[in-house]
Amino acid sequence: MSMVLTTKEVKEEITGEDVLEVPPGYPSSTVRFKAEEVPPLLFAVEDFGSGLSFHQRIRKTMIESDAIAFRTCRETEGSFLDYVGKALGKPISFIRALLA
Hints:
Strand content: 5-15%
Order of helices and strands: HHHEHE
Largest sheet: 2 strands, parallel
Shape: globular
Strand order of the largest sheet: 1-2
């Protein structure tokens, strides 16, 4: 299950196995959630106020936006953010961290 990146609705009954699945097209084959990481991730489908889950709020915000910005650089997170942009159909802006 792709917690935030999917443009599809998340079903109400999500199991630990759903969370452990890597979304199709995910750029890394080595990233996996561990079984002990599942319970905290299930909060995404719990009511987060006004009858919307956390996932529904983030999904709605990203779908209705014109673009998405991340404070990182292409060299560090390029392939992942290309995946995010493609999954959401949005342009991605990289905002480099400023060093003082």
